[in-house]
Structure prediction request, 346 residues.
Amino acid sequence: MSDLHIDPKYQSILSLRETEKAIKEVKDYFERTLAWNLNLQRVSAPLFVRKGSGINDDLNGIERKVTFQIKDDSDADAEIVFSLAKWKRMVLADYDFKPDEGLYTDMNAIRADEDSLDNIHSIYVDQWDWERVITDKQRNLDFLKTIVRKIYNAIRETENHLRTLHPQIKPILPKDIQFVHTEELLEMYPDLDPRQREEKIVKEYGAVFIIGIGGELADGTIHDGRAPDYDDWITPTTNGKKGLNGDIFLWYPVLGRAFEISSMGIRVDRDAMLKQLEIRNALNRTEFAWHKRLLNGELPLSIGGGIGQSRLCMFLLRKMHVGEVHSSIWPQDMIDRCRQAGVKLL
Prediction:
């Protein structure tokens, strides 16, 4: 049985055709605003990469990648990308981007091991992947917060723009985004698990950036998994806390839950990557071509992340199910329950 929430009072604000039009309006406006706010240039991105190149994201390190063989290349193995976290940094170097310049691109992925298909999780993933060159002096928490605010402002600007096109969709985002560290959440809610802590803090403030995801907390746990070779979750910040990364969460009243819209962070430098690889027993990755480039100083310092395209459309269009804004494959029981409730999946 699929994990699905349906509010019996839910009715889509927009019709199917209005929804399809509004999806395009949201995506066009947001990516222009994001590019302007962060000084980003659009580039083309791969759907797949060679297996063993070290370029693909490993997520939590246990998910299977969708693979296939290339017939005209001696049946060489290729794999669908999980994200473009490492690929983007390589492109910053190869395209000669300078400090405070960056790129964004459309990332499409298939995550066949997604084991919690529900209102917001799908095996199909689409996001704006972005990356920007920074200086050594910008590898700090204050700079990270500055970039988070710019991204959040782009989301709010898009929500306000959408109101001019569809007045029946009322803005709900607070003016400012709040910041909290995972260590602080643990101190505030020691008897709750990480998901419950997120729910508590995001419901209180409406928009929150949760800092320090991936590193070990004071009680020996981690808030959530992060790969060891892109976000920096080991570098000390203030008051003994660690981590130069995090997630943007919004409170979504349609589902009555916290809603992750973006994962991002300042990327590892040479020392941080080696420390994190050692912690995760993954030093063998230093033999990959991408990792060698970083260790040899051939990749720039950077900050980057991903912003869910369908997630953003779902939030701004006040949809009950992500399948209302993108087409995917769903369990039959989920399809049946949505149909019975009048939730129209694309």
About this structure: The chain has one domain: 16-341.
